[in-house]
Fold this sequence. Notes:
Nucleotidyltransferase, domain 5; six-stranded mixed beta sheet; 15 helices; 14 strands
Amino acid sequence: MSTVLVLNSGSSSLKYRLLDDAETVLAAGLVERIGTEGGSLRHRGPAGEVTVTAPLPDHTAALALMMATCAEHGPELAPDVVGHRVVHGGARFSAPIVVDAEVEAAIEALSTLAPLHNPPGLLGIRAARAAFPDVPQVAVFDTAFHATMPPEASTYAVDAELAARYGVRRYGFHGTSHEYVSRVAADHLGRPDAKLVVLHLGNGASACAVDAGRSIATSMGLTPLEGLVMGTRGGDLDPGALLHLLRQGLDVDGLDTLLNRRSGLAGLTGTGDLRDVLAAAAAGDAQAELALDVYAHRVRGYVGAYLAHLGGLDGLVFTAGVGENSPEVRARVVAGLGHLGLAVDPARNGAADRGVRVVSPDGAGVPVLVVPTDEELQIARHALATVGG
């Protein structure tokens, strides 16, 4: 029996899961506060759950702590393949690939397009290659699922020569999640040919139009900055606003900070945590209420646009941290879309169930579903398939 270790590396965290080829979870955990003296690991294995604290100066130390914890509390790590989430694959990587030095260098070169994501992913790859030198490492790219977009959906209307020279086009992100969720939703509906709009709503957020399992349009673009309102990213913005700010004296680094860290819900309210924004709105904060209106308005616009692109709709699907866990956000998004056959049933929408479920009323024109995402499982499947496991 083959085993696959999945690593999802953030700038200060490392999520991991060990599965066998029957998709049984053998161990899972989360390492947090990497880069500090007060790092911690929460591990779940055959002996139950355990928390370990230790100094974690870098991802290599985090991986070493993970291996030591697994050795002590089980199961000892001896994977046949390691799968890694990599956010940006550019035009070069449209499918999972076994990592070598050349692939590493290419992922690093793409870091300017995903500065919050590719660098920590690369740190995890390098640490795992050092820890498991004889085990194939497979990079699974968030952009790959969107490689099926037609040219009219991926092409920006800018100078064609410059766009080709610098790779300026729409790539899209959250593809691993959109791929997994759209497949589960289609199975739940009994419609492998389903036309779906999938809303991955978390700290990062994106919409995707899926036609019979293929991405035909998505809201994120060249980078993960375009599209929906997010925790710290504002999504769609007139490029002229950036030129205006540059002329007012803001430099490129200042723009980078603004767009990646001081926009979205954080820019509008001071906090990027949607739970805090919802609480503030409930307490009568007008700015928080405005932020929620802007958030839902943007999502509704993409739902309508994608219905037009798909030529019909068999399901609207919510997923990720906000999409799965916030009945209020789901209700706000769907409000006003009754003319498209979309509605949520208050009791179903507010139920505590956390599995795959329909939250629209009986007889609704279009089912509204909640599907928990599982990027780690999808990465494991791709990693095993890539090496023939």
